[in-house]
Specification:
Among the domains are: 11-32 and 296-514, Dipeptide-binding Protein, Domain 3 (Dipeptide-binding Protein, domain 3, Roll), CATH 3.10.105; 95-207, Dipeptide-binding Protein, domain 1 (Alpha-Beta Complex). Helix content is 31%, strand content 23%. Pfam families: SBP_bac_5.
């Protein structure tokens, strides 16, 4: 597995165990602004934004859509993408063999119709649409499909888990691809939405491709700055059936929810997302906009480092679980835009699979400071500092600080380390105790449990998308077996046993699920939210095209 040499620059928030408080704030809620405080500041902030940014607004607003996001892209390369923000930009530039419809069904994109199968479903044949083209004018060839599905494994990429069940992928001719499976793969439909990249063009310069890619989608990359902004222009020679009306799409980083709201009010942005619980009730009060939301498949969790350091001890992990009241944390930081969950699966996935959520709920601890102190003492871990790693996402940081506060209550030191996304995605899978004892993780999947569990916990993804370094053979075997059968009841039993063991071993602490949400200016028409996070913002859908007009 890959190892990384990382720098040590970033934002550190230290906890002084002697004082029992954060070294950079008062240790109570007096330093935390209320919603009223934040909203009261919008007027002054609005004036500053209008004064400093008015000349940067598009000259032709009817053809321009600007989205202020808390999740900016860090790469435009589908092979190496490992964040929702990156995937959301990539979805505009690239096409898969298949794409999601209005729900979680798939429809042909580069593929010419439905796949055909042989050998009881173990051979899958896909014909390519003759009109499919990349943005340099070259036709999409079968060798590009083979390359797109083989390369993630060859490069040990974050997307490898999606394509690993294929035993082989072969080009039968220029327009025909054959996928061979060892066993039936229940996640086949979702795997076939994997974006297709042009083989030669990416191989010519992989580094340049990550910022100036060539795809087969309706938008071309015009400019890109990692973690800051991606500007995409409509590809006027797009070969697909429906062209977008939007001529220019900008995905711009906004650091704080209140800044998002202000940008919506001042028309700096047409859309903002995701919508923070901090501002959701105030969108219509301060802007001519409305909130559009949909239950999705994204969740948050605390992951423990089982490779090095104090959290390799089960007693320490259990002690940490007694340090935080997650019911209260979710109530304060998440509701009404999400809900508490008690397993690595979003509630609707667990319910749909008839999994024992009530039993898993009973495994969750209530906060018990004395119990935590006793466990820390038993493990000889009553002093020192536990490193909590988060990204710069405000929600991640809130969860990090909430856990640090609970550790302080138990007389244990804590160090919250918040890193830019480009560093975070490397550090949380390093396995080094210098980087983290605990990290705040995020899973974005589909209705299939495999998309939540395999990349997050299976040992094959250790150091790539799995930062826990958990290696229990029984759990690994169950996760692997569950993706090798289409017997739903058998899969359910395998997932039930695997998840129960993950929770009992305190490999992670599930926190919550989070809805997909955007606040949309009234001038933006036909904007709908998709349940799969990476599909958003969807600018062309079945029988609808997003437009920007006069919302007054």
């Amino acid at each position: 597995m890959r190892r990384r040499n990382l720098g040590r620059d970033g934002i550190l928030t230290e906890t002084d165990p002697r004082r029992g408080m954060n070294a950079e704030n008062t240790g109570d809620d007096r330093g935390r602004p209320t919603r009223r405080d934040l909203l009261a500041g919008i007027g002054g902030t609005s004036a500053a934004l209008l004064a400093g940014c008015s000349t940067t607004i598009g000259t032709d607003p009817a053809s321009t859509l600007r989205i202020g996001t808390l999740r900016p892209p860090i790469t435009l390369d589908p092979i190496t993408a490992d964040s929702i923000g990156s995937e959301q930009a990539i979805e505009r530039v690239f096409e898969g063999l298949y794409a999601y419809g209005e729900g979680t069904d798939i429809v042909p994109a580069i593929a010419d119709g439905e796949p055909t199968t042989e050998d009881d479903g173990r051979e899958v044949i896909v014909e390519l649409d003759d009109s499919a083209r990349f943005q340099n004018g070259r036709g999409v060839r079968a060798e590009d499909i083979v390359y797109s599905f083989e390369t993630p494994l060859e490069e040990d990429a974050p997307t490898a888990w999606r394509v690993s069940p294929f035993e082989s992928i072969a080009a039968e001719d220029e327009r025909t691809v054959r996928f061979t499976l060892e066993e039936l793969y229940p996640g086949l439909d979702h795997a076939l939405t994997h974006p297709i990249v042009p083989k030669q063009e990416r191989e010519d310069d992989r580094e340049a491709f990550a910022t100036d890619p060539i795809g087969a989608g309706p938008f071309e990359a015009a400019s890109f700055s990692a973690e800051k902004k991606a500007t995409l222009h409509r590809w006027d020679d797009y070969w697909g059936e429906t062209e977008p009306e939007i001529e220019r799409l900008t995905l711009a980083s906004v650091e704080f929810p209140i800044t998002q709201l202000t940008s919506l009010r001042t028309n700096r942005n047409d859309v903002i997302g995701p919508v923070s619980p901090l501002i959701v009730d105030h969108v219509s009060d301060v802007a001519n906009a409305s909130v559009k939301r949909r239950e999705g498949y994204t969740s948050f969790y605390y992951g423990f480092n089982l490779n090095e350091g104090p959290t390799t001890d089960h007693r320490v992990r259990k002690a940490i679980s007694y340090c935080i009241d997650l019911e209260t944390a979710v109530s304060e930081f998440v509701e009404p835009m999400g809900q508490r969950q008690y397993s690595p699966l979003p509630p609707q996935v667990a319910d749909d699979w008839d999994l024992p959520v009530d039993e898993w709920t009973d495994l969750a601890n209530e906060k018990n400071v004395e119990r935590a102190k006793n466990l820390f003492r038993e493990a000889d871990e009553a002093s020192g500092q536990l490193r909590i790693l988060t990204s710069m996402d405000p929600k991640h940081k809130e969860f990090g600080e909430a856990l640090a506060g609970g550790l302080r209550d138990a007389d244990h030191g804590a160090l919250v380390i918040s890193k830019p996304e480009t560093e975070f995605v490397d550090r949380y899978v390093s396995g080094s105790e210098r980087d983290y004892a605990v990290f705040v993780g995020e899973i974005s999947g589909t209705p299939d449990p495999d998309t939540h569990l395999y990349p997050t916990f299976h040992e094959n993804m250790t150091g790539v998308t799995n930062g826990t370094f958990y290696r229990e053979d029984a759990v690994m075997d169950r996760l692997e077996s569950a993706r090798r059968t289409d017997d739903r009841d058998q899969r359910r039993q395998l997932y039930e046993a695997a998840i129960t063991r993950l929770l009992e071993d305190r490999v992670c602490l599930p926190i919550c699920s989070f809805e997909n949400s955007f606040a949309v200016d009234a001038g933006v028409q036909n904007f709908r939210v998709h349940p799969i996070a990476r599909v958003n913002p969807r600018l062309v859908g079945e029988n609808r095209v997003v437009t920007v007009g006069d919302g007054s």
